[in-house]
Sequence to fold (226 residues):
Amino acid sequence: DGGITQSPKYLFRKEGQNVTLSCEQNLNHDAMYWYRQDPGQGLRLIYYSQIVNDFQKGDIAEGYSVSREKKESFPLTVTSAQKNPTAFYLCASTPGGRGFGEQFFGPGTRLTVL
Amino acid sequence: SQQGEEDPQALSIQEGENATMNCSYKTSINNLQWYRQNSGRGLVHLILIRSNEREKHSGRLRVTLDTSKKSSSLLITASRAADTASYFCATGEEYNTDKLIFGTGTRLQVFP
Fold:
């Protein structure tokens, strides 16, 4: 099955802890994206990567970090510096390096800070 | 920054009726896309319309684009209960091709 997987589906974190969300794709897509979605809201871009070993900040990168060591993997770390991390996190990918085409989404990870 | 604003925020209709959602945006675009999201799930791509196109169809979906008004509409004909979801427009900007800008979405409820 080709697609994007995210794990875990639900994640609970205590305040002050860093957590890492996993995103893996076997679509051979070049570009990958992380979005944050708050209740009743649209998607806001956190980070994106158009090629291995390179990534750019999106609109709300503060308190987050990413790496892109492999083409198929783009993990997101939510650090303790993120003041309001409770949200639904979505990972996406596109073929080629251009993000303005069709994006393919994973099922999401719901993060709750206790 | 979100540049897509969708209208209405929520829409409730009966099965068999048509549903129309509108999207407005602010800058010059390369394309406009519509996505669907079932509750608690990821987004699914529905349709892409390029800036030089005015109308596009896919099954029961009809999308129009008016670049002079910077707006688009999504029409779902003969709606079904399974169409219940949130629908988002997303724009690919003409001069920044790295990413999409998503709107705030329309929540559609279709009653059987």
Summary: Chain A has a mean pLDDT of 93. Chain A touches chain B at residues 4, 33, 35, 40-45, 48, 50, 56, 58-59, 88, 90, 92, 98-108, 110 (CB under 8 Å). The first strand of chain A starts at residue 4 and ends at 7.
